[in-house]
Amino acid sequence: MGAIRSYRLRLQRKRWRIRAFRKRRELKCVVDRTDQIRPADILLFCTQRNEKIRLAYFLDYYRKQGVNHFFFVDNDSDDGAMEYLRSQPDVSLWHTTASYRRSRFGVDWLNWLQRKYAHGHWTLTLDPDEFLVYPFCDTRPLRALTDWLDASSIKSFSAMLLDMYPKGRLDSQPYHSGEDPIAIASWFDSGNYTMARNSAFANLWIQGGPRARVFFAEEPEKAPALNKVPLVKWDRKYVYVSSTHMLLPRGLNQVYDEWGGEKASGVLLHAKFIDTFGAKAAEELLREQHYAGSVEYKAYASRVEDNPQLWCKWSEKYINWRQLEILGLMSKGNWA
Predict the structure, then answer these.
(1) Is there a contact between 194 and 208 (Cβ–Cβ < 8 Å)?
(2) What is the pLDDT of residue 51?
(3) DSSP-based three-state secondary structure for 93
(4) How many CB atoms neighbour CB 29 within 10 A?
(5) CB-CB contact of 80 with 52 (8 Å)
(6) Residue 281 domain-assigned?
(7) What is the pLDDT at residue 303?
(8) Is residue 318 included in any domain, yes or no?
(9) What angle (nearest 5°) sits at the alpha carbon of residue 247, between those of residues 243 and 252?
(10) Residues 25, 94: contact at Cβ < 8 Å?
């Protein structure tokens, strides 16, 4: 990378940090339990709106994996989510009525909280419908992974977003609070993915899966990105640039081996497509708070009334992380 590009990226990172500092004024602290945090704790950061039905299982899943403290930004929920989160003993909670879109889709808010609280901690940044699966997750806690990453001098860990869906209509089986959504949405596309390297930020750009196949069949290049870097050994100088798709400094995005080898990686099981999807898509389309004029939700709206089946004859039923490794969707690298 040339000196001019490097300088421009440093300026851009500084600009995002200043922007996050300014956006802190949009956040009102509801409950602050950060005095409980210990130096080695694993932290999780999340922005949510009207996701109460998902929160019980989400919290339970990551507590079992080894997350010690949760940071939530509630974007003006009216379904009781904020009250529920406030009652959780390991949650610190902020509330905002400000525009999700004008906060760069929550990135500014979380960049500020991570700058203030996450320095020196392994940090997960996730949505309430994302569930991290990593090598040996059935026998080793998240702490084992972060210890190995520390020992290997690796500061970031990637996970491809894998859209999960049921067999049949999306509303065929109602989801109830506390249930595992992957028990309902247990199918996925094992292929149908494209990959390109983003020269500016050095990250891989992955697209495909059922959203490209069903909702963006005519324009697959507009399908949502599936590449994410959700786990980072945070430093107050870091910033997320676009969701968790890429960070600055850009070295954190180089989570792949350029010389033909394999680096350890995970998968985020994405439980978006359950029976709550229709109502959520309609709400978000009305709010117009998402990326590129809510193009993703416009695509959903054009098909959601037909309740399309995402399942097809090539769909795979999820078993475990080893299945995903065999299919080439994740790798244990040299972690044995």
Answers:
(1) yes
(2) 96
(3) strand
(4) 10
(5) yes
(6) yes
(7) 67
(8) yes
(9) 135
(10) no
Cα four-point dihedral sign 284, 220, 175, 92: negative
8 Å CB contact between 99 and 106:
no
Distance CA 213, CA 224 (A): 11
To 5 degrees, how large is the angle CA 231–CA 5–CA 152? Answer: 30
Strands 239-242 and 91-95, bridge-based pairing: unpaired
What local confidence, expressed as pLDDT, does residue 96 receive?
A: 98
282 token code pair: 């309609």
Which helix (H) or strand (E) element contains residue 228? none
Domain that holds residue 231: 3-327
* Interval 182-204 mean pLDDT: 93
Rounded to the nearest 10 degrees, what angle do helices 3-23 and 107-117 cross at?
90
Q: How many residues does the chain have?
A: 336
End-to-end CA distance of the chain: 33
Judged on CB neighbours under 10 Å (0-12, 13-18, 19+), 305 is exposed
Residue among 271, 281, 200, 284 at smallest CA distance from 242: 200
The tokens for 51 are: 């996701």
Q: What stretch of H or E contains 321?
A: helix 321-326
* Token pair belonging to 167: 């067999």
298 φ, ψ (degrees, to nearest 5): -65, -40
Amino acid letter at 276?
T
Query: 216 CB contacts (<8 Å, ≥6 apart)?
Result: 222, 223, 299
- CB 11 within 8 Å of CB 3: no
Cα-based torsion angle of the residue sequence 264, 13, 237, 30 in order, rounded to the nearest 10 degrees: -100
pLDDT in tens, 158-167: 999 999 999 9
SS3 272: coil
Taking alpha carbons only, the member of 280, 50, 323, 46 closest to residue 186 is 323
Looking at the domain assignment, is residue 157 inside a domain? yes
Structural domains of the chain, count = 1
- Is residue 91 assigned to a domain? yes
For 23, list phi and psi in degrees, rounded to 5: -70, -10
